[in-house]
Every structure is written in C-alpha cells, then in structure tokens.
## 1
Amino acid sequence: MDELKHECGLAAIYYRPTGESSALWPGKPDRVTDLMPRMLLDLQNRGQLAAGMSSFKPDREQLLETYKELGTVSEAFRMTNRPKYETIMAEHAGIAGVGHTRYATCGPTNRSYAQPFERRHGCKWKWFSFAFNGNLANYEQLKQEALDLEHYHLTRDNDTEIIQHLIAHALEGQERPDLVKVFTEIAKKLDGAYNLVFLNAMGDMVVLRDPLGLRPLCFATDGPLFAAASESVPLLNMGFPHIQSLPPGEMLVIQNGQLTQHRFAPARKSAHCFFEWIYFANVASTLDEKSVYLSRSRLGEELAKMERERALFDFNDGNTIVVPVPDTGKAAADAMGYHLNLRVQEGLIRNRYVGRTFIEAGNRVEKVRMKFTPLREVLEGKRVILVEDSIVRSTTLKTLLGFLKEAGGVKEIHVRVACPPIIAPCFYGIDMSTVKQLYAPKFMKGAEPTRPELAAMAADLGADSLMYLPLESVARSIGVTSDRLCRACITGSYPTEMGKKRYELELAK
C-alpha cells in the first residue's frame, strides 16, 4: 500500500555458438536480444522508473551498444510505436544482452542513473556493461575510500557507480583477467545485496548472486540459448522447461561459448529477503524453489487461524466480507476467506491504466482516488476485513480507510496485515532506510505489539481493529527456516556487519 520501491530487475540472454538449435528461439542468433524487452516486461513489478539493455555483436563497429530511457519498459523501448521500436531493436541487436528495470532507492530519477552502466575502453576486456540489483550497506564507506584517492571523482551518487569503478580497477593490467578471480576480489569489499549481470566487448558474460542470496536470481538453458532473470516468470513465459535458482555466492560465466558455474565467495548461511515472497515478486514466480503464490496463500491461512483464536467479533454474522487491497493482498485474502468460510469480494478495484508519473503528481487523497475505486454496492453497510500485505509508513492506508467509509459506505473496517510489524529499516535495497519513516515503532515498545498498542494503532489509522501476523508465521508460510531468511525489518537483527552498525546508528539518533 505504501508503494515500497525496490532496486531492481535484472535479465540476461545469450545465444551461444554450440552448433545446436533451440526451439525457444528459431530466429537469427544475432537477433536474440529481441527477447530482452519481453523479459523486462515480466520484471516490470521490480521497477517502473527506467529500463534499458546492452547488447554484444562481434561484427559491429560498436561491439557493445547500450540503450536506456526513463519510463516503463513499453515507454522506454517505444513499444507502442512499431517503427521506432523496430529501429531500436535493430540498432541494438546482438547475440548476447543484459537488461535492467529500475526503481530509485538512491540517486535522482534522471536518465544518467538508468542502467545498464557502460564503460567504454580501447581494450576489449576492459570495455564492459553491467546492471545491478540490490543495495550496498557499506556504500558510504566505499564512496569515501574512492574520493580519498588522488584525482578521483564520482559523477553519480549511487552504489552502482562504485561497483563500476571496482570492476574497472580489477580489470587493470596487460593480461586478460580471470573473471572468477575478478569478482572474488570485488566481493571481499562489498557488504549488502548485490546481484549482477555483466557483459564485455569480448562477448564474456557473468551472472552473479551475492553470498547471502538476499535477492533472487534464476537461470535456464535450452541448447545454445541461455537466459537469466531476477525472477522465474520471464524464463517460464519464454518456454524454458527447467528453471534453476542460482545458489548464493555463485556465478555463471559464458566465455568462448562455454557456460560454467563457479563459487566466488565462501559458503555462508543464506539470508533470503522474506519481503520478496510477500510483496515484491510476481505472484507467479518461484524463488529458491518456493512458490510466491503458495507462500501468500499460507499467510492467509495464518490470518484465518489468528482470527479464530482472538475472536474480536462474530465474523459469522452474515454481514462480514473479506476484501483484499489489490494486488499483493489478494492471495492472502482468498485463503483467509476460504478458511473462515467468509465471502471474499473485490470491494476495491485498482485502476491499472493510470501511469505512475501521473499518480505521483497528485496529493495523497488524489492518489488514492485515482488509484482505487470502492464498490459501494459491495461494501455499503458491511463489516469489512481488509487484508493488506504490510504497513510501512501508513500514510496511504489512512487515506484509503477514510475513503472506504466515505465513498464505500463501510460499516466497520478491521485491518489484517499478512506480515509482522515493520520495526527496522532496510539497508539492502528497499526504500525504508530510517526508523522515523516507519509506522509501528511509534507505538511499539517490544518485539511484537501488545493489544493496547494494536488498539492505539487502529484508532490512529481510523480502523475498528488491527492485527498483524506474528513473527513465526513468515518462515512457516514460505517454507524456509527463519535462520535462512533476512527478517531484519521485522526483528532488528541484520545478516551483515554494516547492517548491524547502521541500525545502531539509527537507534542512537
């Protein structure tokens, strides 16, 4: 509801010269990058601010060519203007490509911050392009170390440029470097989440997942065709029969047409971001062999169980309905309604045709009115159990609750959150970086809310009651043990040293 932003979505495609063929791409090998916009469209949920791709074509004067623009994938690639779209794709065609969709968790929203980032050089292995998903918790430290060097300058205030300089520095020398060693050395300096796709003017490709696996990364092959993406949906929709998750701390390298897999960082206990399953990822995705849809559905079962146990009101009175906040609350709401034997109704209809830029231009009330339409015929006089995926800042939710009562004629609104309270910032790529931004810490004194604290929050929101899921429900619903999830934002316990230090500094403010 609070429109959390996330950095970002990655994609990679390669048609390797193996002598085989792929039914998934019957076209010319040097036009395989025509698949990139399609892949990025399936990652649009991970970034709507900008989109771009870099391609490699060995017989082109510009061996690497990058195209990127502000806007959604359709807007950036001019997909509604067929001649312009075809011109863009023809000019940037290649046997390999890396792509990116962006939200801005750091840095301004101008085109220069769009990815991929390309660094041109006369030496082909020093000429590279890459895209990045994540956030470096030690960015400020790395930035200062760079600026302390004599004659050194940064042109952008973001961690992507820091990584670009680290890669460039690691590639220095007269001999063609070992890419596994290059990224092994770089990884020693990084703290946080950092998935990368990398392509150089030799035609070498790297797909890399950070040692904790904070962000998801999937890949698949079909004969000569290789593809990778932040989520499984792009690969599934392309027709790949076997999709794998890249293990944390491992990298895929394509060099001289050969695909190999390597470990670039010591094996550590994983810390998959639980928020991927409950909010960010496409509901059709499977991340680390765990279905996003089934995870959200099980969160709804947990809500139903909690509703029965606490029994704040008689929900079997024939006047109670379950209403999801679209779209991420729907799977949980459906499951909750089913297990409580309550009718689930679309009392809120989301307008999917209002552009994000237009929505951002209005004030909060206008944003809600443009984004949602309450169905008075469904809601009037009803007791509504409103299922929300999470509450971060609460600003939009407060407005929505008032709108439901005013325009929808709702009798009572009972908010049920398919997530525990967000009590701590995220330093790994979600745009909630300070405690002051968060709603729950203003009311809570302990790790989980007491009933008086819940009552105070409900009154502040304008709800008749409020309940969050308990901490243990998250791991149980996803099917991953809690010690293998990053739950820092709901526990205050961080999986990296810099994350811990930054949280201590936050609490001291």
Note: The chain has a mean pLDDT of 92.
## 2
Amino acid sequence: MSLTAHNDDIQLRVALPPQIDRQIVREEFFGSPEFAFHINRDGANRWGIWEKSNATGYYALVYSGTVRAEARRYKLPPRIDLPKRVPAEVESYLLPSEYIQADSAEVRNLFEQLVPASDRGNAAAIVRAAFDYTSKVIQSVELKGTTDAITTLRLGEASCGGKSRLFAALCRAGGIPARLVGGLILKDGIWRSSHIWVEAWIAGMWVPFCPLNGYFAEIPSHYLILYYGDQPLLTHSADINFNYSFHGKKVLAPPAEAMQAAKKFPAGTLSLWWAFEQVRIPLNLLKIILMIPFGALVVVLARNVIGIETFGTFMPALMAVAFRDTGLAWGLMLFLAILLCGGIIRCGLQWFQLLHTPKLAILMTATVTFIMAAILLGVATGQVLPTRASTFPLMILTLTVERFAIIWEEEGLGKAVKVVVGTVFVIAGAFVVMNWQSLQIIVVTFPETLLLVVAAFVIVGRWTGMRFGEYMRFRELIFRKER
C-alpha cells in the first residue's frame, strides 16, 4: 500500500485473514515504521489499523503473511428441512439490508418463480434454485463499484458482488440465513481485485457458494477469507492518493499436523522444519539449503560436461538463490545492470592506480548504492519486486564485477560478453531446477535424495571425455580426421 499526505491525520483500516479451521496464517509482518499500528477484532473479523497524525509526504505500508488454506466440499442431501429457529448470532443474516433487499417485491416474485411451493421448506432445493439462477442466468461481467441485489436482477448481469448479493437475497427470502464473504483468489503474481462469495446457514453450519465461478457447496484451496459481512475490504482517510496491490507466491511448507508429529520423531526433514520454526528462522530457508546442491549440480554439468565458462565456480547457483525473491526476469535485469555499471566504474578506477583491496571496497560500495537506488525506484514506481534486490549477495556481485572488468580489459569486450551470456544461461538453469516444485517435494520428503547428487558429482568428477563445447570448437579438425 502507498499514500501521499499533506499534513493530514491518516487512518487506514484493512481486513486481515482470520485464523479459522480451514486456513492457518503465520509469519505475519507489518512494515509501517512511521505509523502506529494495532489490530481490532470484530467478531470473526480482524482489522489492521494504521494511524498517523500530521502526516506529510509519501509513505509505503506492507502487510505480509504465509497462509495455508484447505479446500472444503459439502455433500448436501436432496432434502434438508428448514429449521424452525436459528441461533441468535445467525438471526441478523435473515434480515434485509441496504444492498441485499430480501424483502423487496421483485426478489420475492423471483423466489416464488424459482422455487415451487412444495419445495419452499427444503433448504437444499432453495439453494440449488438460487445458485442455478445466479450462476447461469445472470451473466458474468466486470462491473466497478457496489452492485446490489435489485440492480443485478434488473440488469441480468453482474460481477462477483452482485451475483453473491442476489444469491444471499434469495436465500434470506426463503428463510435461510446467508452472509457475504470477502477475500482473495490466491495466485502467483500481482493483482488488485478482491473477490466476494456467499455462505448459507444449512444444517447448523456455514456452507460456501460462489455463483461467479460455479462452486456449489464448496470452497477451493486458493480462496483466502479476509472478512465476513457486506463491508469494504479497506477504508482510508480522504484525499491521500491511496494505492494498493496484492502480491502472491506459492511456497512449499508442511501441514500443521505433520509439524506436531515431527516433535515426537527427531529423525527426518519434518523435524528440521519444526526446529527451524522454533528458533524463528523462516521455514523457506531450509528448503533453500536443501536445494542448493542441485543448483551446484547444474553448474558442474555446465562447466565440466558442456564447457560453459562462467564468472566464479558456484556463483551462478548462489545468484539463483537470490533470484528467488526477485524472480528470474527481474533478477537477471538487475544482475546485468549491476555488472555493466560496476564494469564501467572499475575501468574508471584504473586512473587512480589503487591497490586491489581498496578497489574492491569501492566496487562493493558502488554495488550497494546501485541496489539502494533500485529499491527506491521500485518503491516510487510501485514495483515491489525490484525492492527485493537487497537479498543479492554483495561480495559475490563485487567479485563478479571485478572479474568482468578484468576480462573486458585484458581479453576484449567480446570475450567478456561471452562469459556473461554463459553465466546468465547457467543462472537460469540453476534457478529453474532449484524452484522446480516437484523436485522440492521429493527432496523435502526424502532428504536422502542428496546422496544421488553426491553420486552425480563423483561421476562428473571422473569425466575424461571432451566437453560438448570443445566438439563445437574443434569440429573441423575432428570431422576432417574422421573423413
């Protein structure tokens, strides 16, 4: 989130994911040092409140967390009798509201058309009729703003909010408590839109329905609940040029029950997950550690079998680890930019005839400055991925810049570019292998797989044949000899 204030008193309220049985939230982080922050609980909802008096200038605020959400599917029998009474905490969801006009004549007439008189005491028949109408008859379109039930009915089209409100109105008209649920459809990448669906009180439990995407009595695992009720996801003070976006990335982590079992069995990877969590070290770090040997294997194959020349021995594997936060495309762009700028600076330092160590220190300072500039540019433009460049290994980058400049100076720009291309190719290969989720699952489940990597190192280490690159380099000599 970002905002620009002009000596204003700022308050920002954002829905935070609740801890419920189908979704577990942990590793929460609130990045807003200039603002006072607290969490306000309202029933099942959690609201993050950011406040600051006399705010002036540009501010960036961050909320992040790791969530594991489970899919749930409910099998409804053909007939479920409507209850004669509902719990007191559920009664309010039978009443009409500003945007869910369950008592209007139009909604009532539609309900009587959809549900025969013989089925009006059957909750299963009511929700089926309401769902079929809102998901199939009402057309799906992108509409901005709030669309109420009546407008949806009259237009015959709506987005998730309008469809869900009409579905809730039909349920309430039939005597079934129904409430809106707001949240996100999780995915890899960056997006702005949130999502709304419905929960209906059936047989003593809240059953989910999504008329827009066709989920009847089920909620998929990528649906993240943020709040309950027909209310905005976030509210903020006026005239602050507010902007926000959601950033998602799928990560590998063990389920909670496996973590509990790991306490009793000290052997195995799961116990390592549990140990890392106990000392407040991110669990993702263990996955990175376990995957580094596979990145090293890519480097060994590239150098010893294919014959690709790179900067450093295992620098490509370590850079692939750094690209985990920025992504491959952003990471390579930043890496090449740092390499070019650092190479130019290093050539300029030749005029001062400095000793080797002070020269490296200046290059490292220039690298740090470039990374800080990338972070500030990312914040100013709203691009969060470049701001994660701070995870780049500074000393490795510094030595790489030094090596790049030396090759450029001694062997020419063509040779330096060739080594850069080879390095980029190997980094990309290591990144793909180390982030291959199927391989991650195998390694985390069976850490003894690393013994196979050691065996591969032994085999490649005894390689006595020519590299593939040498076949290309000496192809005329080799083919002439064969002829």
Note: The mean pLDDT is 86.
## 3
Amino acid sequence: MDLTDYRNAPRERDRVADLMALVPGGTRRALDIGARDGYLSRALLRLVPAVTALDLEQPTIDVPGITCVRGNAAALDFEDGAFDLVFCAEVLEHIPPQLLERVCRELVRVSAGHLIIGVPHRQDLRMHCTTCQSCGRTNPPWGHVNSFTVNRLAELFKPCHVERVSFSGQTKDTTNALSAALMRFAGHPFGTYDQEEPCIHCGQSIGQPAARSLPQRVATRLAVQLQSAQMALSSTRGNWLHVLLAK
C-alpha cells in the first residue's frame, strides 16, 4: 500500500511530531517496536544516534544508524535495560488481549530509562466494524482489539510512572449497543474495509461488504440516526494518546 498521501496529511504529520516531541534529550539507543516500513524509525534517527527497528518480519531499512531485527514483542531477545528508550506506537491496540500484559512487561524490561507509547485514545471498538466475507464474523476497526486510557497504560506499565501525556487530533466517535447491533445485522456496510489487517478470527482478507437487503438498509439508517444523535451530545476527546513513561 502506498502510504505517501497518508503520511503527508497534516493530521498524520502532527501526530508524528507530537510523538517525537516526547523523546527525552540525551537518548542514545532507541528500540522501535513494530517498525514496519521504518517511517517512525527514520523520524527517531533525527533525534537518536542509534535506532533498532524491530518487527515480526525483519524490516528492510537501508539507512546508516538503523539496525533491523526480526522479533516478537512478547519475547524480546535483548538484555534487561538494553535501550535508553523503547518506542511503541500503533502496536498495542493490535496485540491479542491475552498477550498484552506480557508484551508491556517485556517493553519495560528492556528499557533502561524511558518508554514512549502511542495508542488510540478511548476508542469505541464497536464503531466502524467490518464483517469478514470469508467467515462471516465481526471484526473491530483496523484490527484493533484493545482500547486505552491514561490510567490503563499506567497500570499496564507498572512500576514505571507517567512523566508526560499528550494528545493528537480530535474525535467524537462513539456508538451504543443498539446502533452496534443494528449495524451488525446490516453487515457493517460502513466499516474499515480498506484495511490491510486480516480477519482476527480466520486470518483471511476482510473483503468488501455484501449487498444489503431492504431490512438491512432500514437497520443501517436507524443505526446511523441513533449514533449521530449520541455523538451530538458527546464531548470531544483526543484521538491519539501519547505517553512518556519513566522507570
């Protein structure tokens, strides 16, 4: 997928700048968890002399100062305190819930001083769901299976303490049980079907939404109306939560 337009969008540029503003001065060694194409690893390299880019499949980032490694965040092959900074953005929301605490413990273990965590803030995982066209089961948006607040991150990363908190972007996205049930009946026609993430249940491509029957179209309209009314009464919140933690 060509991410050029996405990366150049003002909202995304602001998000990355907000993350980088949390990098502590004097950091010499950083570990980027879930590096993928290396976009954030390269941004870190402008602030940190040595960056290790880690992903489930070894990244291919041919840039001096960046070391690419294959690894699993649930079992990191590094010594305790190997890095001044552990950087983890757009990752924890995808970690299977049964592994989340283990991953957080590993990130704390390999950090010698600080961690920067970036996650969606108070995301309502019932909104923008998809229906897998292979197995017919409901998937959360973008494959996100965890929702976070500042307090939840503080609990997950004990004994670290929260040093700084920042938010990027704004949203009012929220829904309710009735709207979510109606959308599920309608086949989730407005979900995140352009996502790269496969179905969390069967591992196949999500596909595209199926054609809707008349009852499903009626259910969709009612769900949208209920959801819109709720959002009109909801307060705006930060879209992305960025936290600097210290050991």
Note: The CA atoms of residues 172 and 231 lie 6 Å apart.
